[in-house]
Specification:
This protein is of the alpha/beta class. The protein has one domain: Alpha-Beta Barrel (TIM Barrel), CATH 3.20.20.10. The protein has 9 helices and 8 strands. Helix 4 packs across helix 5. It is globular. The relative contact order is 0.15. Bound molecules: pyridoxal-5'-phosphate. The site of pyridoxal-5'-phosphate (PLP) has 13 residues, from strand 8 and helix 9. Its cofactor is pyridoxal 5'-phosphate. Belongs to the pyridoxal phosphate-binding protein YggS/PROSC family. It comes from Tangfeifania diversioriginum. InterPro entries: Ala_racemase_N (IPR001608), PLP-binding_barrel (IPR029066), PyrdxlP_homeostasis (IPR011078).
Length: 225
């Protein structure tokens, strides 16, 4: 990796951080990136690194010891939960009772409480992960008594569009759910983080109330194969 490319990453990070509203947290979506690339992003101010795969995160954590937070942003398989709860500071992709129970079980063993977001399938796409908007209340009710989980908000991907403006309704749906749940004042459930928006859509997501955005391409450039 040449110094010019790393410099470009640093510049991208600085530019985006300068233009984000102060209350919006930036998660660097680091899938396929090398430790060098991630370190360059951290040098420029990244404080949260997001991973889609447990194995990849495990590998990079061995070489990166900067004090950043690590978020799981990809679909989490139950057989990876044991590793995941050791690696991550937040799991953004809880979408079923079974997954939540497994996270709780593994966290209990470690005497650790895991902050989690509920992933919403806001586009109601049949091939996508996330809980359907109409089922989110039932899910929260079934998992909010799990002692070693702390529900702190919602996350959504939304359908991918060429024109990011088309993603707006899905961000609106998710924000409405977020507010609805907040109003209910469910014990132990806090609606603090709303994670939505990626490289091509984060400005629209922020418009619609996101306070956490997950950006990959715009920080690191086109993805490595
Ligand atoms: C890859 C990824 C992102 C970032 O996507 P870009 O378009 O590269 O910014 C955000 N969220 C999740 C869950 C991802 O997998």
């Amino acid at each position: 990796m040449d110094e010019l490319a790393l410099d470009a990453i640093r510049k991208n990070v600085t530019g985006i951080l300068q233009n984000l509203p102060p209350e919006v947290m930036l998660v660097a979506a680091a899938k396929t990136r090398t430790a060098e690339e991630v370190k360059a992003a951290i040098q420029a101010g990244i404080q949260i690194v997001g991973y889609n795969y447990v194995q990849e995160a495990e590998h990079l954590r061995q070489t990166i010891d900067e004090p950043v937070k690590w978020h799981m942003i990809g679909h989490l398989q139950r057989n990876k939960v044991k590793k995941a709860v050791q690696l991550f500071d937040m799991i953004e992709t809880i979408d079923s009772v079974r997954l939540a129970k497994e996270v709780n079980k593994q966290c209990t063993k470690l005497e650790k409480t895991m902050p989690v977001l509920i992933e919403i399938n806001s586009g109601k796409e049949s091939n996508k992960t996330g809980v359907l908007p109409e089922n989110v209340m039932a899910l929260i009710q079934q998992i909010n008594n799990l002692s070693n989980l702390q529900i702190l908000g919602l996350m959504t991907m939304g359908p991918r569009f060429g024109n990011p403006e088309d993603a707006r309704p899905y961000f609106k749906t998710t924000k409405a759910l977020f507010e609805q749940i907040k109003k209910l004042e469910i014990p132990r459930v806090e609606m603090r983080y709303l994670s939505m928006g990626m490289s091509n859509s984060y400005q629209i997501a922020i418009d619609e109330g996101a306070n956490m955005v997950r950006i990959g391409t715009k920080l690191f450039g086109t993805r490595n194969p």
